[in-house]
Automatic annotation (TrEMBL), chains A, B:
<dbReference type="InterPro" id="IPR006091">
    <property type="entry name" value="Acyl-CoA_Oxase/DH_mid-dom"/>
</dbReference>
<comment type="function">
    <text>Involved in the assimilation of dimethylsulphoniopropionate (DMSP), an important compound in the fixation of carbon in marine phytoplankton, by mediating the conversion of 3-(methylthio)propanoyl-CoA (MMPA-CoA) to 3-(methylthio)acryloyl-CoA (MTA-CoA).</text>
</comment>
<feature type="domain" description="Acyl-CoA dehydrogenase/oxidase N-terminal">
    <location>
        <begin position="38"/>
        <end position="159"/>
    </location>
</feature>
<dbReference type="InterPro" id="IPR009100">
    <property type="entry name" value="AcylCoA_DH/oxidase_NM_dom_sf"/>
</dbReference>
<dbReference type="Pfam" id="PF00441">
    <property type="entry name" value="Acyl-CoA_dh_1"/>
</dbReference>
<dbReference type="GO" id="GO:0050660">
    <property type="term" value="F:flavin adenine dinucleotide binding"/>
</dbReference>
<feature type="domain" description="Acyl-CoA oxidase/dehydrogenase middle">
    <location>
        <begin position="164"/>
        <end position="273"/>
    </location>
</feature>
<keyword id="KW-0285">Flavoprotein</keyword>
<dbReference type="InterPro" id="IPR009075">
    <property type="entry name" value="AcylCo_DH/oxidase_C"/>
</dbReference>
<dbReference type="Pfam" id="PF12806">
    <property type="entry name" value="Acyl-CoA_dh_C"/>
</dbReference>
<dbReference type="Pfam" id="PF02771">
    <property type="entry name" value="Acyl-CoA_dh_N"/>
</dbReference>
<comment type="similarity">
    <text>Belongs to the acyl-CoA dehydrogenase family.</text>
</comment>
<dbReference type="InterPro" id="IPR046373">
    <property type="entry name" value="Acyl-CoA_Oxase/DH_mid-dom_sf"/>
</dbReference>
<dbReference type="InterPro" id="IPR052166">
    <property type="entry name" value="Diverse_Acyl-CoA_DH"/>
</dbReference>
<keyword id="KW-0560">Oxidoreductase</keyword>
<dbReference type="InterPro" id="IPR036250">
    <property type="entry name" value="AcylCo_DH-like_C"/>
</dbReference>
<dbReference type="InterPro" id="IPR037069">
    <property type="entry name" value="AcylCoA_DH/ox_N_sf"/>
</dbReference>
Length: 592, 592
């Protein structure tokens, strides 16, 4: 049976050695009194226990049993209620929440490590609280003081949970089409009516109340995405003292039957003149919801890394034990009937691909989190703005690239098991099914790519990209930049800049171009970003090698693998981008 | 709900226009009286009905219900028994079987079209008879006349079914480790004892008898793969008149719980002094089994194409109907609330990738089948030998490349559905789960790649590759070779030849090299082979364009897409191969 062990050594490496988190926190007043390197390590140790001992053991059984629906009542699989109660006792839901309302105020750099552990251990379980965290962010940023006082503490404590209600049956990627109505009431509240689908945790038996963030239209709303407002719609109405009142007129119509994340209740939610409260300004709901969506996008990206890490751990354990065939150069375990699978170069190719992508992703998620912390807490306005620009640029890459490479990794992790990888008992096929949704929800990866190339690169004429490129150039120019990786990184960066310049030039002439090549562009950008991470990690590893050959030597070898075996994927991506949009547009719709 | 319509127009195009099957059959005496173009078309029409009307409707329900095990008795999902009875009435199991024993003697070129339809309609159902066909091939090639007379007619009729029993719990890719014992008995039979796993259709309720082909060891067998013999072990012993006798001492211990192909019973089979009959020579069982395995490998490859075609059809239908967003150049359906998904370049990218890979695969499977027909039926011994060499070279590519690109296609076909692609009701996620096994069973795709590069290229010093390259060069030199595709094909071929030459030179010096780069080599080879197919198809389409612009124009546009958007993948593969084995070997096993 698969076991999960949080990769604490690597998380500490990324946090402290690569990004010097402790020093950063010390210079940010909002964090200086809250956390230091030692506190962070203690939290991670505890998080490792909770995820491996409490949540991971429920992952397989949760998948087998799934969530249940019975006449509007949803129950989670056996063990989830008890685990959730224990989990929220630890205060984990509010880890990075606003201390003014009961959150612990921990930095995002720390929170992403914890999120990775959660997704590794049990993706379905994690979704119940991941949505709560995003909901809190949106409320914290846009809700009235009264609503914040009432709701945030109970959400941070995990006593209540949050959801995001966007999609309708006919409105998915195109939210401008949504029809849910909000009628103003005499008391200042709104009567919400409409039907939402794909609502994660829309109903469940874990929390006393559920706080739905719902997108809908006011009576005077303009058509399209500029006429959408955001409402808080609780399952139970809440008195001014926080006590639960009458049940609101909303219900779960059914659960979806899905490929994976089966223990996560994916609900059809029907609102029938349900009482709701406006969050933020009328018609500006989509922008307010994006506060939550950007958070969720990074979180869902981390689902890709988390599932890949779990798959990798299982794959390494299996390939060390399973005896099959002989190493190409001759037996390496001559006393045994066969060599372990891990001696075979093709098996190592799969393991190293997983390792390089997962560790590269871990570093990159921490890097993006660092920018989020700076955007929120830096004292200097320019530093905040710079960090915000990087967050906007890199979030779609994190979401899509983490999950695309997450699926690739989980497929490799299944493949090394041979036929056993296809059997449910071993857990590897569940990880493939569970990770697959991450490429789809929170904006499909195609939508992420459009966001990146269209809005984050072309629309600002490459300004944000230049910020990122400048940082990489500065790194390459430092004496510590590791050879030969630094020069390979620079070559890859120049390729990204060159293709970006070409796209900026062509996009004005060809309206189809951005949509035609956005996915390949995002992937190319992702490989360059990981090259930066791997060069950065290699620099630290070269400096530390003498002190711990096993760990730092592995880092350097994995960096070598990344640069020689994965980064070359950009050659093809570059050629495909340069082939432009024409090859996609020749066929008439009825010629498909 | 998904519907399946056999792509008859494209199948006729490939068979008749690209490969001139009728002319080929007319010159091969064994086929000349059996089949012509008209007969073939009539068979395909009938096959289209059977697969779309009888088998496709059971695909979803079979997945939901799965196969059942109850105390050794296995039952297939509702409707399978009735459908199987109707199916075998049509004589389909023996379609390409030896006419001397009741087969219909149809060419493989025709059979592969039918197989593709079967896998598109219902992969689980198909496996029950696909194994029978392979079993027949092995018996026809290696069994005694007496066994052939007794077993083949009842297998070709579908009255009985066949299995292949290779894998044991500790022996998967490494069959040399297997332990099943065969003790000679006084009557010339053998007592077979051992336990086999992953036996497709090892037990079921569709047929009156089940004929197991079992690999085992004689008492005097040498260790390893040179001590393996092949035995026929029937579920019920068979009298000399073909009547069923006593139940043999073998049983199904359990069914595996799998990611997909859930309606296919994957059995643990226990043999306990079961009566078996030697097939072929002692200790030469693995070679005999390869007759079946090579057949199954092409068949399983076609599973990749079949699932991809089904996914493509669903995806095209959905993206034509689903309204979401607007085309980048402005509304294309301004009277509607949004444009259909199919106008979005990124959606077209996914659909065209599926279309180009599936149609390329269909052509290539027919090409390999043509070589199989020539190897079997050509009058000239040189022509037979040449075809045999091409079959040996191209079978591992067909198996692995069809299924790798089949998974990629099914992932795209799921992705264009957005969240609905993750929901079971739409059928797209089942295709992902069902196609995934095809990369694993019948020799993992990593094993196929080792077979290709190690045995089929390096071991014969590139001789078979030169045959294939000569054929492509001859095509490029014909006046009908389509511009600009022919020159791009030649460039790609030269790249394959160059990297092959480098590998031939390096492999002797570096024993790890073949295993280290085999997968990328197989993929590079696959893209070049598909480029040959697409150039070939483009030549026919250019000639025919005036007569049917819709069909031939689509072919040419898809060829354009293939050459500009998919073939460039070889750039990265080439670079990764040239990076050699060193980056895979640096890490010690305990550094993973």
């Amino acid at each position: 049976m698969p076991e999960y062990h949080a990769p604490l050594r690597d998380m500490r490496f990324v946090l402290h050695e690569v990004f010097a988190a402790g020093q950063l926190w010390a210079r940010l007043p909002a964090l200086a009194g809250t956390v230091d390197a030692e506190t962070a390590d203690a939290i991670l140790e505890e998080a490792a226990k909770v995820t491996s001992e409490l949540l991971a053991p429920l992952n397989r059984s949760g998948d087998e049993e799934g969530a249940h629906w019975d006449n509007g009542v949803v129950s989670t699989p056996a063990g989830f209620r008890e685990a959730y109660a224990t989990y929220i006792e630890g205060g984990w839901v509010g880890l990075a929440g606003n201390p003014a309302y009961g959150g612990l105020g921990m930095p995002k750099m720390l929170a992403v490590q914890f999120e990775e552990m959660l997704y590794s251990a049990n993706a379905s379980f994690t979704l119940y609280s991941a949505l709560t965290s995003g909901c809190c962010l949106a409320l914290d940023a846009h809700a009235s003081e009264e609503l914040k006082q009432l709701y945030l503490p109970r959400l941070y404590s995990g006593e209540w949970a949050g959801t995001m209600c966007l999609t309708e049956a006919h409105a998915g990627s195109d939210l401008g089409l949504l029809r849910t109505r909000a009628e103003p009431q005499a008391d200042g509240s709104y009567a919400i009516s409409g039907s939402k689908i794909f609502i994660t945790g829309g109903e469940q038996d874990l929390t006393a109340n559920i706080v739905h963030l719902v997108l809908g239209r006011l009576p005077d709303a303009p058509a399209g995405s500029k006429g959408i407002s955001l409402f808080l719609v609780p399952k139970f109405l809440v008195g001014s003292d926080g006590a639960l009142g009458t049940r609101n007129s909303l219900s779960c119509g059914s659960l979806e039957h899905k490929m994976g994340i089966k223990a996560s209740a994916t609900c059809v939610m029907n609102f029938d003149d349900a009482t709701g409260y406006l969050i933020g300004e009328p018609h500006k709901g989509l922008a307010a919801m994006f506060t939550m969506m950007n958070y969720e996008r990074l979180s869902i990206g981390i689902q890709g890394i988390g599932c890949a890490e779990a798959s990798y751990q299982n794959a390494v354990a299996y390939t060390r034990e399973r005896l099959q065939g002989r190493a190409p150069g001759g037996a390496q375990a001559p006393q045994k009937s066969a060599d372990p699978l891990i001696v075979h170069p093709d098996v190592r190719r799969m393991l190293l691909t997983m390792k390089a992508l997962t560790e590269g992703g871990r570093a990159f998620s921490t890097y993006v989190a660092q920018q989020l912390d700076l955007a929120k807490h830096a004292e200097d306005a320019d530093e905040r703005r710079r960090a915000e620009a990087l967050v906007a640029l890199l979030t779609p890459i994190a979401k899509a690239f983490f999950t695309d490479t997450g699926l690739e990794s989980c497929i490799h992790g299944q493949q090394v098991f041979g036929g056993h990888g296809y059997i449910r008992e071993w857990g590897q096929e569940q990880l493939v099914r569970d990770v697959r949704i991450a490429q789809i929800y929170e904006g499909t990866n195609g939508i992420q790519a459009l966001d990146l190339l269209g809005r984050k690169v072309v629309a600002n004429d490459g300004a944000a990209l230049r910020l990122f490129a400048e940082e990489i150039r500065a790194f390459v120019d430092t004496p510590a930049a590791p050879r030969p990786f630094a020069s390979e990184l620079l070559t890859a960066l120049e390729r990204l800049e060159s293709i970006s310049a070409w796209l900026l030039e062509q996009a004005g002439k060809d309206p189809a171009l951005v949509s035609a090549v956005a996915v390949e562009y995002l992937n190319l950008f992702g490989y360059v970003a990981y090259a930066y991470m791997w060069a950065h990690m290699a620099a630290v590893a070269q400096a530390g090698r003498a002190s711990d050959e096993a760990f730092y030597g592995a880092k350097l070898s994995t960096a070598q693998f990344y640069f020689s075996k994965l980064l070359p994927r950009i050659h093809s991506l570059d050629a495909v981008i340069r082939a432009g949009s024409a090859p996609l547009l020749e066929l008439a719709d009825d010629q498909f």
